[in-house]
Amino acid sequence: MGFDLVCFSGGKGIRGPQNAGLLLGRKDLIELAVLNDNPNSDAVGRGMKVAKEQIVGMVAAVDWLLEQSDDKLEAEYLRRTAVIQKTVSSIPSVTTRIFTPPIANHVPHLIIDIDPKQTGITPLEVAHELRNGTPSIELNPATGTDGRGLTGTSNSIILSTWMLEEGEEHTVATRLRSVLTKARASHTST
Question: What is the DSSP string of 82-116?
Answer without folding.
Answer: HHHHHHHTTSTT-EEEEE--SSTT-S-EEEEE--H
